[in-house]
């Protein structure tokens, strides 16, 4: 029996900006900025190549731990969509290994390879980062590996690769949410093949995934979490009013840590997780503000917000959040 696996030549991490889980430092929008981009440059990498590999990898243990966290989120939220995404990941995800030359090799076990038609089925690589990967001379991963600004997880449609920064300590809720977030992107893209080069389409997909993510947090953490999101939405509404703008007309800065959620959510296990959590709370608070202010058009307003963030490459901050 011949074992087929996939060599993915690099990762398009820079091409796909992970809105809401990126928070670059000291990047402020112009007060006069009112327009958003509608087109982005098309990214056309070389297609993935096929090779033959069949071996175990210790990245599987990292995957198993994160998958268990995602299962816990799905169970405690009672969300059927979350269970569907996990089933998709389990069936179609191929464990991936980093090589010194910067390539990523997806390792397929013989028993799994025999059941997959790689030319037709929605397979994708699963790259679980681990300590030591930074020594592989992979310049393209250097920023993403470091637990600072460059995002917390990624699904690259061009490379069919889902990457999780599993070398960074995180609580079960963050592990589970990140796997489900990127897993939903993988499932939606591989089953529908939407145009990722169209900024509006791309941001509409992000809107759907963040609505899903927000609902998971609400379902798991309940009334107290909801009450604090409502308060955060009111704060953002007032900040917009103070600037003489209506909700959605002013890009509120993420200029503080939302520590009022600390007693509601599990303790963070790293500064990286703290930044991810703060970014999520900002997104949820901003989405709720738009839902309250625009009952009929809030979904369109969410897309506009995400397009606006995309213009700046990140949720804007004053730098105080980054400095702690």
Which key features would you list for this structure?
alpha/beta; seven-stranded mixed sheet; 9 helices; globular; disordered C terminus
Descriptive report:
With about 325 residues, this protein is α/β, with parallel strands linked by helices. Helix content is about 45%, strand content about 10%. Strands 2-1-4-3-5-7-6 form a seven-stranded mixed sheet. A hairpin with a 5-residue loop joins strand 3 and strand 4. Helix 2 crosses helix 5 and helix 5 crosses helix 6. The chain starts with a strand and ends with a helix. The relative contact order is 0.18. The N terminus and C terminus are likely disordered.
What's a concise summary of this model?
The protein is of the alpha/beta class. It contains nine helices and seven strands.
Task: Outline the fold blueprint.
Blueprint: E1 5-8, E2 49-51, H1 59-77, H2 80-92, E3 93-98, E4 104-106, H3 110-113, E5 124-128, H4 139-145, E6 153-156, E7 161-164, H5 172-192, H6 199-242, H7 271-293, H8 298-312, H9 320-323
Parallel strand pairs: 3-5, 5-7
Antiparallel strand pairs: 1-2, 1-4, 3-4, 6-7
């Amino acid at each position: 029996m011949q074992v087929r696996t996939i060599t993915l030549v690099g990762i398009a991490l820079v091409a796909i900006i992970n809105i809401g889980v990126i928070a670059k430092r000291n990047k402020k929008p112009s007060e006069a900025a009112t327009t958003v981009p509608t087109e982005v440059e098309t990214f056309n990498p070389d297609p993935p190549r096929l090779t033959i590999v069949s071996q175990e990898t210790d990245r599987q243990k990292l995957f198993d731990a994160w998958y268990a966290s995602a299962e816990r989120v799905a169970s405690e939220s009672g969300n059927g969509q979350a269970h569907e995404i996990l089933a998709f990941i389990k069936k179609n995800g191929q464990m991936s290994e980093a090589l010194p030359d910067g390539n990523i090799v997806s390792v397929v076990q013989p028993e799994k390879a025999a059941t997959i038609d790689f030319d037709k089925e929605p397979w994708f690589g699963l790259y679980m980062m681990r300590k030591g990967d930074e020594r592989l001379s992979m310049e393209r991963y250097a920023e993403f590996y470091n637990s600072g600004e460059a995002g917390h997880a990624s699904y690259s449609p061009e490379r069919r690769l889902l990457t999780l920064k599993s070398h960074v300590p995180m609580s079960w809720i963050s592990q589970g949410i990140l796997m489900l977030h990127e897993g939903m992107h993988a499932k939606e893209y591989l089953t529908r093949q939407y145009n990722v080069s169209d900024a509006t389409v791309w941001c509409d997909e992000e809107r759907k995934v963040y609505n899903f993510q927000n609902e998971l947090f609400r379902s798991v953490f309940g009334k107290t979490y909801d009450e604090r999101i409502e308060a955060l939405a009111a704060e953002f509404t007032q900040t917009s009013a103070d600037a003489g703008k209506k909700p959605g007309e002013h890009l509120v800065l993420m200029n503080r840590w939302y520590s009022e959620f600390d007693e509601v959510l599990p303790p963070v296990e790293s500064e990286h997780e703290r930044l991810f959590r703060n970014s999520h709370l900002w997104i949820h608070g901003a989405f709720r503000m738009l839902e309250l202010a625009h009952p009929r058009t809030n979904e369109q307003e969410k897309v506009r917000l995400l397009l606006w963030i995309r213009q700046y490459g990140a949720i804007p901050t004053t730098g105080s959040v980054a400095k702690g």
